[in-house]
Amino acid sequence: MKKMKKNRLPYYLILALLFAYGCSNTKYLPEGDMLYVGGEVEVKDTVMSRKERKAMEKTMEGLLRPKPNTAFFGLRPKLWIYNIAGTPKKDRGFKYWLKNKVGEPPVLFSQVDMDYNADILQNYAENKGYFKVRTAADSTSRNRRAKAKYTVMPKQQYTIRKVIFPGDSAATELDSTVANIRRRSRLKKGQPYDLDVIKEERERIDQRLKNKGYFYFNPDYILVQVDSTVGKHQVDLIVKVKDETPARAKRVYTIGDIVIYPNYSLANAKDTLAKDPKAVERYKDFTIIDPDHTFRPIIYDRTMFFHKGDKYSRRDHNLTLNRLVNLGTFKFVKNEFRPSDSLDTVLDTYYYFTPLPKKSIRFEILAKTNSANYNGSEASVNWSNRNAFRAAELLSFSVFGGAEIQASGQNKGYNVYRVGGEASLVWPRFITPIKIQDSSAFVPRTRAMVSYEYQNRARLYSLNSFRTQFGYLWKDNIRTEHQLNAFDVNYVSPATVTQEYRDQITAADSLNNGSGNALRKVIEKQLIFGPNYSYTYTNTMRKFRKHTFYYKGSIDLAGTIAGLATGADARTKEPEEILGVPFSQFVKTEHDLRHYMKLGEKSSLASRIIAGVGVPYGNSTELPFMRQFFIGGTNSIRAFRARSIGPGSYRNPDIDASSFLPDKSGDIKLEMNTEYRGNLFSVINGAVFLDAGNIWLWNKNEGKPGSQFTSKFYDELAVGAGAGLRIDITFLVLRLDLAFPLRKPWLPEGERWVIDDIDFGGKTWRRNNLVFNLAIGYPF
């Protein structure tokens, strides 16, 4: 039997379309010119390793100008859009927007100055210690496309033989100070000569001198002489203070008078305020000019690092400004140093603050939808006072109300209504029995909060939830943050339970699989109290780093002391109660690690792993429902509806067919996500993603086979994939994701992968598997 030849027409058709697409971008070029498609650098060096050469070539290619048109798999869609848009008749309208906002004009080869680029490459190589280097430039062209090629031929790189600082017996105090701060020099013996490192060393010396009182010094007064005659491919670096350095830059300055204008504006200038004797208040080392006495002077004592007679320090200078801004009370903070009229080496310090409006009210309304077929909206009103007791305390009151309507599903009408309020007070300091000194740039905060929420799930039940907290928030630096709630109490009680819900519990009990207890657990009274702590680290604000990270870890200890005091043991006797309610006792910890890898100027790979475990003990045999783990939904595994996975491989068709039954929950959680993000055009970004994870129970449940965590947990992971769009307008990101499952953990072993079942053309498959997610913001 002869094998049938494959139909190759589609492949030829694709190639033809690509060829036509490419030609369409060159036919619009000016006569006699070519499209510039990029530059290439080749480093010819026999001493460098291959890895070093490739790294140097990549860096040098980033220096070439101009940049070619944006390419995607060899195609240039933005240039194509620019060309097909034609010439708009007006400076507005769709065609103008398409051509100038979405499109991109051609980068012509005539715009490339190859000699200039060759000089740039030569300067870069010399600055890296390749003092004898030659560069050459050439070009190649084909089909009206031109590429520049640069060849760099460096000789052996020079290294540092010796770094010479001023001697210990230096002529001036400044020279002696420079000599004493050599210990952490950026310049090291044996390292390659690098002009950028020399500049960093000048900045380091300047910073250290500023912290030692040399207020008027700057990096330009440091000279680093290079002696390249000392040996073969070696240099000596001689660090010295320039002879022409001004006299005032060589002096150490101290702080004189400290004058504060806490209610300053152009309308009531400082000179006018100073004439009113009642406007002047003296507090410790501060002179405060404020006729309205807007703030109690104690806030300056907590934020100012300067005191009269202190040696000037740039570190204290910046810490003071950072803490003042971090108070959240001032919209404008400025300071000024002036030489004292009476003493040569004394600086009088002036601070000018413009407060934000003391009171404000904010109204918010939002619409939301989720993958569980609920659509709704929520409105909130927030009133705040930024200076409640004249020491920058933040007092806030908020009320909210919302509704989520079940728009589709087998059982409609089980809508959710929420209403509640919250009151909080934040002090910009630690309130503790013992005094805690804090010297970071961020003001520590103490927060007290009381909240109430009423939730009504139509036709089922309604719950009252009360919560109160007292805790602390503080930051060591811009990357790390701590939150400790020393006191956290949460009490939940049912307000009403319908007969329909009670009937469902009875029906579930008859199945004898534990599902009745799961339903009953939702409406039980719950009392949770105990401390909790979280730590956050992030360096994602460093936009130019290729790899950035985010980590948040938390631990929650509930009922520990009460359990020890009462000798609680729910496994052997009835749970102990407080005010007639059994209290929860457990340890719960959760860890969220994210990694962001920059692939290009507008593309990245984002990954996340979440691991959490909660262990009930003492007065509890399982975690309270509100503290258990859930998985699935718009910010989790997007191919599965919210809270619809697990625990483990357990699934009860009778229970899962009902749309109003309790959310699936567990004591252990593992989730992994990875997502490629790239810019399509303008503010439209695209993404493709892969999600996996599940939840499990800590203890074995006979009524839920397959729900307990075991060593074969990896065989019970749900997996989903999808693609989406992100409309990113800086202050708002609208996200649209379409996902579908690749692996269903509740299916029999050996049948859980469902990749072969994927059928985008099948209506039934699409209805049962495609999940659309609409959300605000990125998932992680």
Which secondary structure elements does this structure contain, and how are they paired or packed?
Blueprint (H helix, E strand, L loop, with lengths): L8 H18 L8 E9 L6 H12 L15 H8 L9 H9 L11 H14 L5 E10 L2 E10 L4 E6 L8 H8 L14 H16 L11 E10 L2 E8 L12 E8 L8 H5 L5 E4 L2 E4 L8 H6 L10 H13 L3 E10 L6 E10 L3 E11 L4 E12 L8 E13 L9 E12 L17 E13 L3 E14 L5 E18 L1 H12 L4 H8 L3 E4 L2 E7 L8 E12 L1 H7 L10 E2 L2 E2 L3 E15 L2 E14 L36 H4 L11 E14 L2 E13 L21 E11 L4 E11 L19 H7 L1 E6 L4
Parallel strand pairs: 1-3, 4-6, 7-9, 7-11
Antiparallel strand pairs: 2-3, 5-6, 8-9, 10-11, 12-13, 13-14, 14-15, 15-16, 16-17, 17-18, 18-19, 18-20, 20-21, 21-24, 22-23, 24-25, 25-26, 26-27, 27-28, 28-29, 29-30
Give your account of this protein's structure.
By secondary structure, the chain is α+β, with helices and mostly antiparallel strands. Among the domains are: 9-154, no CATH class; 159-250, Ubiquitin-like (UB roll); 254-355, membrane protein fhac (Ubiquitin-like (UB roll), Roll); 365-529. The protein has a 17-stranded antiparallel β-sheet that branches. A hairpin with a 2-residue loop joins strand 5 and strand 6 (234-241). The longest helix is centred in the N-terminal third of the chain and has 18 residues, at 9-26. The protein is globular. The model is unreliable at 1-9 and 11-20 (pLDDT under 50).
